[in-house]
Amino acid sequence: MSASRFRLPAFLVDFFWKFPHVFFLLKWLLISGIVGVLVGSASAFFLVSLDWVTNWRESHVWIIAFLPVAGFCVGCLYYYFGKTVEAGNNLLLDNIHRPSGIIPFRMAPLVLFGTLVTHLFGGSAGREGTALQIGGSTADQLTKLLGLRPRDRKFLLIAGIAAGFGSVFGTPMAGAVFGLEVFLVGSLRYNALIPAFAASIFADLTTKAWQVGHTHYQIPIVPELTLPFVLYAAGAGAVFGLCSIVFGELTHEIGAYLKRILAFAPLRPLVGGAVVALAVWALGTTKYIGLGIPTILESFQTHLPPYDFLIKILLTAITLGASFKGGEVTPLFFIGATLGNALSYVLPLPVGLLAGMGFVAVFAGATNTPLACTIMALELFGVACGPYVAIACIIAYVFSGHRGIYGSQRIGQSKH
Amino acid sequence: MSASRFRLPAFLVDFFWKFPHVFFLLKWLLISGIVGVLVGSASAFFLVSLDWVTNWRESHVWIIAFLPVAGFCVGCLYYYFGKTVEAGNNLLLDNIHRPSGIIPFRMAPLVLFGTLVTHLFGGSAGREGTALQIGGSTADQLTKLLGLRPRDRKFLLIAGIAAGFGSVFGTPMAGAVFGLEVFLVGSLRYNALIPAFAASIFADLTTKAWQVGHTHYQIPIVPELTLPFVLYAAGAGAVFGLCSIVFGELTHEIGAYLKRILAFAPLRPLVGGAVVALAVWALGTTKYIGLGIPTILESFQTHLPPYDFLIKILLTAITLGASFKGGEVTPLFFIGATLGNALSYVLPLPVGLLAGMGFVAVFAGATNTPLACTIMALELFGVACGPYVAIACIIAYVFSGHRGIYGSQRIGQSKH
């Protein structure tokens, strides 16, 4: 215990030695409070600017023609100033496993700027990667400031990730569980429960205090669960799991291919950006780029073209494989929701329910976080869909193999 | 993989060797289906007879005078025929850790009969201990029948526990997570996700197919979360955690004391039953015995006497310390809900919300299952109370120390 380093009054030190859990609780409520306010404020700023950028692009679509150039510029920025933070989410996960030097704070402004550029010029990407990196690197600055030890630093990184995730999606409980389960596949440790939940809840409170709202999703009809429905949900879960493998492998392959043919890193987003811009021009629609929230919302209500998810997989794999900044999760929501929507052509479950199941299950498969995804569905869609979503997420998790989208995740335990 | 033992066609064996997760999924859907139907049916029968017994007692309260004699008879039954299954829940947990001989099936009828006697004659006890033991011992009979290996047997026991819990409370997701997290404090393993969730969902479906319903609880008002409310919830969580220690220690002490002074085991429920029967006569009310559902429901709506939880702790500790059969959980719900209700005299949170938080948090502290309890609250009360309940359950878990009500739980990891 490190109470003495802060020179607390002697009677308090005695009290805390006797009741270490009280000290633990107060200490982490305080630290998580600081993390929550910082990360929640950053998320609020990020969400507002992302919204602004998306609206600007949608009313000035000619800007998409400049996606290759924009990608090249961000590529140069990272090449010359961001080498130490380029690994992004994987750097965070690595540091939870094997603590090394403090994560440079520049990670936060770089990834924020890079993501806004991606969305302004029409790449297909997400935002949670950005939120996690802002959260993790911001939180980690407290390590030196407060003189934290290695185990406390690990908790701090988990708190930062939980805060970033919880506040950017407005789902504090899912954010906390995500922070706890993301770094180790197949196991969830309880000793960081308080840091994760406190930081996530405080960050969400902060974002809401800035008057920044979140998208509301709704599953119109959830039928009473029956045996055939359990089996349909299981089948859908298997498809969602396979889809997350396809997405992960494709992104990985495209990244590896571009690395092989283009030695100078900034050229990769130049080429990738050109392909995406051309595809948008050829398709004649912007529904597959950016976050794609309008299409996600539609997928809960009506039948969409059954190939929507394929186009989104392709464009996102190219965008992210070419090292544009952003994240995988909102595209995974899009891919999952439209795949679920497409499954409603063959499975006798309501289209909105399948969309909701896909929304979280493809994400669960790709990130190996089935519990966080199930809880996220409860927070976003309500409790009624619970068993359907749990089945889909767990089976997607088992079917998605041992490689997810985060290369630095470790295998704690085999999946079956 | 043991596909060949069932002599599947060669092409299927090849397929399953190539895709072991498909085999794993199909195998456990099937096994969990059987477990679910058996345990769900047993739960339905148990719930209906428990209801009948409770109603009969309430309209013939003179029967409570015979509680000592009834306790003596059940004590003799266990003394002469039930020595091997007397350890109850702890025997199940022990077998998950260190598989030994198959759990005798007689555990199920004995605990069912013993619990009905407890409730008919007016002991203060629960029902989930009974559900877990029916579930676990029923499931374990399949071990020999299907020729399962040790790891599969472990999964089977987890499935049985999940099915028992999920079907008796009508909360399939909480049941599954409870089965996964109860045997090891501080850690949750993912490899049994499918057996646990499938068994719990199938069991709940079965109980509902038998037209057996569950109590509906409702938290009338959940205010928007704010910083002061987070701190109130944390304070309440600490009190709930301490309460679960008091309950656990008192039950333990009374049990140890009776063991010391009464060598012949059946005499213990005779004495304990006499004390409880006298207490009911002195108090002039039956609200503190049995399951106490009416008082639990009331605690969500209006202010109750602030000492309700103390009387319930005392009567339950005597009933269970004297080896009456039943369980701790419904009394823990009662104790938590009335303690939460009492806290509304000092904390400015709505009385129903505090009752709901206590309902699950005292239970979370006593059994070391904070995630199952949080999910249970979502399933029973809806999503709105989520962050309040999560805070209360997690802090109760951290404050409840390393000894819970199940002696055979192992410490996987320190709590802080």
Describe the structure.
With 416 residues, the first copy, chain A, is an all-alpha fold. Chain A has two domains: 3-209, Clc chloride channel (Orthogonal Bundle), CATH 1.10.3080.10; 227-411, Clc chloride channel (Orthogonal Bundle), CATH 1.10.3080. Helices cover 68% and strands 2% of the residues of chain A. The first copy, chain A, has a two-stranded parallel sheet. In chain A, α3 (67-81) packs antiparallel against α11 (267-283), α4 runs antiparallel to α7 and α8 (172-181) packs antiparallel against α9 (193-209). Chain A starts with 9 loop residues before the first helix and ends in a 5-residue tail after the last strand. The mean pLDDT of chain A is 91.
Which terms would index this structure?
Clc chloride channel; 2 domains; 3 strands; 416 residues; mainly alpha; two-stranded parallel sheet; homodimer
In brief:
The first copy, chain A, is mainly alpha-helical. Helix content of chain A is 68%, strand content 2%. In chain A, strands 1-3 form a two-stranded parallel ribbon.
